[in-house]
Model the fold of this input.
Amino acid sequence: MKKQLLTIAILSSMISAGAIAEEKKAEIDMSNPTDVYTSLGASYGNKGFNIKGQLMLSEKSATSGQKTGVIFEAKNIFNEDADSPKFTGMVTHPNYGLVPTFNDTKIERSFRLRYGTINTNNGIGWSADAVFGDHPFYGNFALIQAGPVMTIPVTKDLYIWPILYAGAVVMEDNMSQLLPKAQAEATKVSSSGIDLASTVMTGMVYTRYTISEHYWVLLSTSYTQELQGKSWEDDVLDGGLQMPSFQGEFTFAYQMNKRENIRFNYKTDNSDDTDDTYWVEYNHAF
Done:
């Protein structure tokens, strides 16, 4: 009898533990852009093949609702359609004096690294966001920002997440290319190799609407403006960075189950230099 009771107790505890683990395992919301979990994703579109990975560093507990994680993204990892000309320096023309040369092509591959933490009890957190890419005039650059995030439940199905970022644009120092090689070496215009081009601020809003158990849409809009330094959106010829100040991204998702989805994405901006982007994406959460 005692053995039977012991067996029943062990089986009951195993079933209970399994149920708790399954409940804990399902405590993710893949439609929430601020939720933290471990996942892998891949996508392909008109601008190449992309991969994305998220790693949960800490999860909420009985005493704390804090979740922390990092996200890494690599876009156009095979550098497809890299045919945009890139500035390679100034040369002296016998008739026109100093003229720019564009004997290289811009690398279309880019990387993004994000760190975030969110309190699941009140929906307040903060994140740091770093984007690394290639600029057609300034060369390698990094946009590094950080700021708070808030969760606003409008209705049961409609949620809004406003984010306010502040940070800086760091550029490769290409001052030596602005003069002929001999003159640049003589004047020693090149410095430490990097330049702090601008300090910037970005306002971003995520808006999600849940259509049903298996379908949801997400809209992301952002606006960036310089605080000091080079203008964010002015042309390079006017001393600016010539970057889009507005970006909008729309996602329609099919949530296959709690841990898998397929997303159809479309992205646009207010720049004349970039085409609209669309891609199909698969994500799996562990």
Q: What stands out?
A: The first strand starts at residue 39 and ends at 45. Residues 115 and 232 are 24 Å apart (CA to CA). DSSP finds two helices and 17 strands in the chain. The two ends are 41 Å apart (CA to CA).
